Amino acid sequence: MNLSFFDQFSSPSLLGIPLILIAMVFPALLLPSPGNRWINNRLSTLQLWFINLITKQLMIPLDEKGHKWALILTSLMMFLLLTNLLGLLPYTFTPTTQLSMNLALAFPLWLATLLTGLRNQPSVSLGHLLPEGTPTLLIPALILIETTSLLIRPLALGVRLTANLTAGHLLIQLISTATTTLMTTMPVVSLLTLAVLLLLTILEVAVAMIQAYVFVLLLSLYLQENI
């Protein structure tokens, strides 16, 4: 029984072929493709308004130099948002519950922000490793601590997204299992657990949206430090 709870996090396959790529590409197919005119229907208008809102929120903490990253950050935000929300549907697979995938998204982008800072302003980027006015005896320890905190950033991004989504999926499965088990023996308790399940589902929708936003927002803050 304990192992079956984690079966939902295993990558699906068909005839030995992994289907995780299909799960990653499918959210993009749900977006309406632009036509010849600027605005075709209400759905396109709503999509443009939502993308514009996300772009504005992500570009607020960035300088003008960081606006070059608008396309990358907005596309990543839309991808994570759709993937997280679609993973809440029954009998679906959530690629963002895989730590390997989240690290594959976090590490290259974090490294790109770091290399941008080392190329444009190397003295300022390296100066973050040693705060001004540090006593001489504490310099080696602080450099080691700051370097460790810098290198652990992509790991923290990936683990945060994976842990929050995994915990939410496990809670939903545990409470739904309890609801179906208690339905025949204790129907009143089953109704109470069903109400808790509905509230938890609403909470997980909010968590899926917030975690996608936090992932991209932290990347934008790392970028701001290096430009």
TrEMBL record:
Catalyses which reaction(s): H(+)(in) = H(+)(out)
Residue ranges of the TM segments: 12-31, 68-89, 101-118, 138-158, 170-189, 195-223
One CC-aspect GO term: mitochondrial inner membrane
CDD domains: ATP-synt_Fo_a_6
Coiled-coil segments: none
Keyword Transmembrane helix attached: yes
InterPro entries from the UniProt entry: ATP_synth_F0_asu, ATP_synth_F0_asu_AS, ATP_synth_F0_asu_bact/mt, F0_ATP_A_sf
Family: Belongs to the ATPase A chain family.
Assembly information from the UniProt record: Component of the ATP synthase complex composed at least of ATP5F1A/subunit alpha, ATP5F1B/subunit beta, ATP5MC1/subunit c (homooctomer), MT-ATP6/subunit a, MT-ATP8/subunit 8, ATP5ME/subunit e, ATP5MF/subunit f, ATP5MG/subunit g, ATP5MK/subunit k, ATP5MJ/subunit j, ATP5F1C/subunit gamma, ATP5F1D/subunit delta, ATP5F1E/subunit epsilon, ATP5PF/subunit F6, ATP5PB/subunit b, ATP5PD/subunit d, ATP5PO/subunit OSCP.
Protein's recorded name: ATP synthase subunit a
Record organism: Ptilonorhynchus violaceus
